[in-house]
Design goal:
alpha/beta; six-stranded parallel β-sheet; 20% strand; 15 strands; 11 helices; Rossmann fold; 2 domains
Length: 358
């Protein structure tokens, strides 16, 4: 009898909601908005790798969603708003032109957390983060300066925002630190992703004595053009040796996985706060490497040594004397640009052939 009672009691406990285990919490829905299609390499590829890192680290505690090829402007606001309405509680918007749409949507969804990547305006539920891309650009400039034979490099640029100007200037300063005669010719596209135009710009530059090229656009088109023409190119965002196995000099790689994981974990455990992060080589957000087969080991070693110098603070890319390409002094010898001055950069340094596009 007692045996039967015990069995009945156990069964009742198993069936009763009072004794059942609490249901597992719903996974945190995390959204990502991408400005171009996901390709094998490039800006969006690196953020997609960051999204995958979040899933790998946090497993069933999160459910991630992405929307690709979203133009900056009204479409971005619509997509960001849709993600918020669908219950996403953390939304990453990695493109400069997403900043204002993100802020606008954030006002209407105060319980949703937003991460404006490359933006600079914060709100109680909007954090910003960016990377010191210019540190990698300076190192790539050293490699380019060692590899050029014509002393002329090319640069295919998107928009004339401070981030792009930082890159052009740091690349030029790095190049001229080892090749004082170096010149950098710039072509502005006023777009982030247009592979045919990126390719055309590269070909135009190759016809003007350029034998090594860098770019700030979203595809591998410039690298592919360099491979076709037998020229050299600096990969940006990602390793692009698949597109240019012989052309790649070095890659400036952006690494978002650790940042995305930490911010998602903070949203899960309730410690997320708005703020501003600007990390570089030291923080592991920027890395140079993935040298191509034509780069001598001595050049590789030099670039990697300078990377360590940047990480330690021994080397600062924007250290004087610096003058602009119209001959005006910008910075005296022995001084370095402040973060505020770097973030508001609006000039091109001596050695750059071109103007800041309007």
């Amino acid at each position: 009898m007692y045996k039967n009672l015990a069995a009945a009691f156990a069964a009742a406990c198993f069936l009763s909601p009072v004794f059942s285990q609490a249901a597992a919490p719903e996974p945190l829905k995390v959204g990502f908005v991408y400005v171009t299609p996901i390709t094998e390499a490039g800006w969006v590829r690196q953020h997609e790798e960051g999204r995958k890192a979040v899933e790998a680290a946090l497993g069933g505690r999160v459910r991630t969603t992405y929307v690709e090829n979203v133009p900056e402007g009204p479409d971005a606001e619509r997509v960001i708003r849709d993600l918020a309405q669908q219950g996403h509680k953390l939304i990453f918007t990695p493109s400069f032109g997403y900043m204002e749409p993100t802020l606008k949507v954030a006002k209407d969804f105060p319980d949703v957390k937003f991460e404006s990547i490359t933006g600079y305006k914060t709100a109680p539920n909007v954090a910003v983060a960016n990377a010191r891309y210019y540190e990698g650009r300076y190192l790539a400039g050293i490699a380019a300066g060692r590899m050029t034979k014509t002393h002329v490099a090319g640069y295919v640029a998107g928009f004339p925002i401070p981030e792009v100007l930082q890159g052009i200037n740091a690349f030029t300063l790095g190049m001229r630190s080892v090749d004082p005669k170096a010149q950098v010719k710039v072509v502005w596209l006023n777009t982030w992703f247009d592979p045919p135009r990126e390719r055309d710009a590269a070909m135009t530059l190759f016809n003007q004595d350029v034998d090594v090229i860098a770019f700030h656009t979203g595809s591998t088109a410039v690298m592919t053009a360099a491979q076709e023409r037998g020229k050299l190119a600096v990969a940006y965002h990602s390793d692009m040796r698949k597109a240019g196995p012989d052309a790649q000099v070095v890659a400036v790689v952006h690494q978002w996985g650790d940042y995305y994981r930490r911010r998602t974990q903070a949203a899960l455990d309730g410690s997320w706060k708005s703020g501003s992060v600007w990390g570089g080589v030291k923080e592991g957000m920027i890395r140079v490497g993935d040298f191509g087969p034509k780069v001598p080991k001595a050049v590789q070693d030099e670039v990697l040594a300078r990377q360590k110098d940047i990480a330690s603070g021994k080397l600062r890319p924007f250290r004087g004397p610096i003058e602009d390409n119209e001959g005006n002094p910008v910075l005296a010898a022995g001084r370095s640009l402040t973060d505020e001055q770097i973030l508001t950069m609006n000039f091109l340094v001596s050695g750059v052939q071109g103007k800041v596009a309007k």
